[in-house]
Amino acid sequence: MKFEQKLFLSLIFSLTLYSCTNKKESTTPETKNITESVYATGFIKAKNQYEVFGQTTGVIEKIFVQEGAHVKKGTPLFQIDNKNLKIATENAKLVSFATDYTRNKDKLLDAEKTIDLAKKNLTYDSLQFQRQKNLWSKNIGSKLQYEQKELNYQRSKAEYIKAKTNYNDLKRQLKLASGQSKNNLEIAQLKEDDFVVKSEINGLVYQINKEEGEINSGEKPVAIIGTEDFIIELSIDEKDIVKIKKGQQIIIRMDSYKSQVFEAKIISIEPMMNIRTRSFQAEAIFTNKPTKLFPNLSLEANIIIQTKQNALTIPRKYIINDTYVMLEGGQLQKVETGLMDYELVEIISGIDKSTKIQLP
Questions:
Q1: Around 223, how many Cα atoms within 13 Å sit in the side-chain half-sphere?
Q2: Of 244, 234, 263, which Cα lies nearest the Cα of 306?
Q3: Phi–psi pair at 48, nearest 5 degrees
């Protein structure tokens, strides 16, 4: 005999024996509205909520804001001690000032004067050489005079070329030094900016985790910032995720508002499952929200999958293994079920309104 058959016969025997010795509560199916929903847990978080981290390690020198303060994007939040970096930035400023290209044009003017002088000497020596060359062609003058004029001309020509080369080299060096010093100053200023922690959004400071004088290690957030709009983050079990889709209505219950029920709807579902918790994350927004909310408030949610009007139902506690009910006298009757909620089960076939069933 198969294990399932043995289990079924054992179940029948046990239920029959139990029913013979105990008087059972009984009921008949009723027509009611039934809603199938998926249970989820969650919490409230501020929209665009993020944890603020300092990019550098150091002592928190100054805190510029308080919890509950409104901040704009770029608002300074924390100043981390950076005395050494400030000195480096000042040095970079001095170097940048000293090597600025426009402030060193006097050096280029001197080089230009050297070129002008070399050019005049070249012109003079060129004319002298040409005159001596013409005389020498007529056998006037000595060869020594001719060679001396030629040498003077060649020397002046070399000096002129050298003066132009020196000018171009100086110009290139000044531009390079000016550009490098400006880049070094910009790098120093960027590094200094790393010591000022700023807000990344327009929002509200919900939490400050450090005090002045404490060390910022960069491992833990120094603050939490978000907008004043709130969203719901839900954790949905993997067995239910296939039933969930955007736009579904949610019924919300919160410990902070025990006597009230609120409505929301799904706006997004993360496609990747959390391996550790075997659950999926989804986000929702209130369609009927509380008057006051705070980040991290916990909640319970029922995500409505479908609703059916005038369904034949029985209390859920009367169903056995989602498949059987117990008739009067202890006999098991197989039924086909439909929608289920926490209290009711829809009966599609197997029994009708007149069937009396016992509580197993």
A1: 26
A2: 244
A3: 60, 25
